[in-house]
Design brief:
By secondary structure, the protein is of the alpha/beta class. The protein has 6 helices and 4 strands, in the order βαβαββαααα.
């Protein structure tokens, strides 16, 4: 189940489209019946999370908190219990995303899709710390974005 909570009021979003996109991503990954939490929040709140969990004293566009935090990129989740059918949680600050659009030169809706894919990839063990890891993650992201356009 996809649970979306919108605690911000700065940016109007199409929550239904976000949920459809998230479900299509999960379906494409063969994780259709897995849980995913998405919190849409303010710049101030994501700043607090970023400071607390990443030691970065600034707001950001997205944070990911994987349920299976030892999963490696490309590895499948093998649930032992029903509660293991959980990818984790993503936090997105729509105002930050909107303010950052000139840097990306994308419409807001497309940037939200890119970030959703990016966040889910992080939940599945992908990262972009090393160049080789970036390439692996980028390939996975491009494939998922293509699935959204089908």
């Amino acid at each position: 189940m996809i649970l979306i909570e919108d605690t911000q009021q700065d940016v109007t979003l199409d929550i239904d489209q976000l949920e459809r996109d998230a479900q299509k991503i999960l379906d494409s990954l063969d994780y259709s019946d897995y849980d995913l939490g998405i919190l849409l929040t303010t710049n101030e709140e994501i700043h607090t999370y970023n400071r607390q969990y990443r030691k970065q004293d600034k707001p950001t566009d997205i944070l990911s908190f994987a349920y299976h935090d030892t999963l490696k990129a490309g590895q499948r989740i093998i649930p032992q219990f029903d509660e293991d059918k959980n990818l984790g949680d993503i936090i997105i600050a729509p105002q930050y995303v909107q303010d950052d659009l000139p840097r990306w030169q994308q419409p807001f809706e497309q940037r939200m899709r890119v970030l959703l894919v990016h966040g889910i990839c992080h939940l599945l063990g992908y990262d972009h710390i090393e160049d080789k890891d970036y390439e692996i993650m980028h390939t996975a992201e491009q494939w998922l974005l293509a699935q959204l356009d089908k």
